[in-house]
Amino acid sequence: MKNGTCPKCGSKSVHHEQNGIYIPKMIGGAFVRTDTANMGSNTDDYICVDCGYIERYLDDKDKLKAIAKAWKQAGT
Fold it and tell me: pLDDT above 70 covers what percent of the chain?
């Protein structure tokens, strides 16, 4: 979706906003559980306005490293 094309329906009607999906401001972004870092993180949100498909990306490199250590890898 970051390239402007929806992977679900192929539409070019993809829109982007940082923290665009509503999460109350008081929590400071999306909460992602790890062993040591449970603070809010900013997200980059993409929505296809034709089919409604959504993708969300964390933009916090330190949080991503913590997740790699704390979460199980998919497909294993």
Answer: 75
- CA-CA distance, 47 to 22, in Å (whole number)? 13
Output the pTM of the full model: 0.71
The amino acid at 59: D
Q: Rg (Cα) of the chain, in Å, rounded? A: 14
Residue matched to tokens 């094309």: 5
Residue 73 and residue 17: Cα distance in Å, rounded?
28
The residue with tokens 């993409």 is 46
What are the DSSP calls for the chain, one per residue?
-TTS--TTT--S-EEEEET-S---GGGTSEE---SS--SEE-EEEEEETTT--EEEEE--HHHHHHHHHHSPPTT-
